[in-house]
Amino acid sequence: MELKDVIANWIRSARSSAGMSGADLGAQLSLALGGVRGHSKANISHWETGKHSPNLQQLLAISKITGMDLPEEIRGQLITKSMPSPLASENAFDSNVVPAKLGARAIPVISAIQAGAMREITVPYSVGDGYATIFVDGDYSQWAFGLEIEGNSMLPDFQPGDIVIIEPDWEPRPGECVAAKNGKEEATFKKYRQRGSNAEGNDIFELVPLNEDYPTMRSDEVPLTIIGVMAEHRRKTRRK
Asked: pLDDT tens digits, residue range 142-162?
């Protein structure tokens, strides 16, 4: 069976098991991938008949939406097809990179105000709740989310526009970077520094900016609650 037929059968099975129509799946793909074009009911039909096939990012999104794992047979062949053939020469070009695996799970990039409410909500933010969507691997909890860095308090390591993945299920360790809730019900992103405990046994900690021009915040002086720990840092190496 050709790869396109394997993909077509998997998409039909995944959609059917999720109880979705082609239009439903197309609408969910548009939300997850940020665009309607290429995700219409007709596109889904063409994929399921093998007329043409979605790319790996679209397949991973379908896997997330329907809850059906993408078979390694499909994932592996798509990655292999994108890899260049090695040169059969002892003087071959030193190719020291391979295609990166795309994350199989979509999570929302949310605002500082939404992040500030994390400790009060009972249901995790879904992909459509954020203003953007990014893909991560499957190692994070259902509560994981993305935050965009604003301002200069964490320069030079974190620049405005950088994205950090926050994992609320992790306990912070000294020296790690965290998202914390301040008294204004918004999130702030700083380096975590433990400073002991108070008389009630509650941890005292500092939130330290990497830019020395900004002040350090201390939990026994201002209301601070840890929301989660940074798990990933994504940066554009060049900006306009």
From this structure: 899 999 999 999 999 999 999
Sheet bearing 177-181, strands edge to edge: 132-136, 105-109, 145-148, 163-167, 225-234, 177-181, 187-197, 203-208, 217-218
pTM: 0.60
With vertex at residue 54, the alpha carbon angle to CA 51 and CA 60, rounded to the nearest 5 degrees, is: 145
The candidate with the shortest Cα–Cα distance to 203, out of 214, 192, 211, 195, is 195
Q: State the DSSP H helix or E strand holding residue 4, giving kind and residue range, or none if neither.
A: helix 3-17
Q: Which domains does the chain have, with CATH numbers?
A: 3-81 (1.10.260), 105-234 (2.10.109.10)
CB-CB neighbours of 62 under 10 Å: 25
CA distance 163 to 148: 5
Residue 204 three-state SS: strand
**Beta bridge mates, 8:** none
Residues 6 or more apart in contact with residue 59 via CB below 8 angstroms: 7, 11, 70, 74, 75, 78
Tokens matching residue 219: 């939990």
Distance (Å, whole) CA 75 – CA 13: 16
